[in-house]
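S., here's the first fold you wanted:
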Amino acid sequence: MIAQGIIEKTIWRAIAAVALFLAVLIVLELFEIRYGRFQNLITGEAVVVIRDGQLNRPALRKLRTTVNQLEMRLRQLGISSIDDIKQGAIETNGEPGYGLTEAAKPVTKQDLEVLFNRIAALEVVRNGD
């Protein structure tokens, strides 16, 4: 419809087609925001593919992806092993979302501060101050 307006050199048909397309997109977005079930119908929901380090192979088959493809994407995100993932899902945009196990989480500044405070407290006790 858009191309037809351009081919015929009538810009008004092309503008009308674009306006109609934008109106439909806006209406769909408004319905997604307002009604939760409509959002699931249009965009879907995340599919859990890893739980407690174990693959959910039926979910992978449903998504038409392989273990190798999933592992490759996880390696790109810096995750070396599926065992390090507490829960992993493929989001509606196709990107993996994940939560790491406690042992696999990186050390934070707060973790280091707690450790340094404990070491300092042990030093005080050991020195008898």
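And the second, which I think is the more interesting of the pair:
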Amino acid sequence: MKSPSSRASRSAKTGQFVLTSERGEKISAVEGMTLSPRMAKLLALGVRHGLSGDERRSLIKEEIRKKK
């Protein structure tokens, strides 16, 4: 039997599963995917500035547009 700590958490309000960045990294690692240094730096910047998910997505979109 699995330990309670290994269970996926659910939001008490909505009943939906919550996927944290830590769990997302573990899933990606199983698939063989890793963040590029550029993207890791960008995401760390968003966390450091306390940006919301929408603000981080906008920041990523801006960065991708700059690269082209």
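Why I say that: The chain has one domain: 11-67. The mean pLDDT is 82.

Talk tomorrow,
H.
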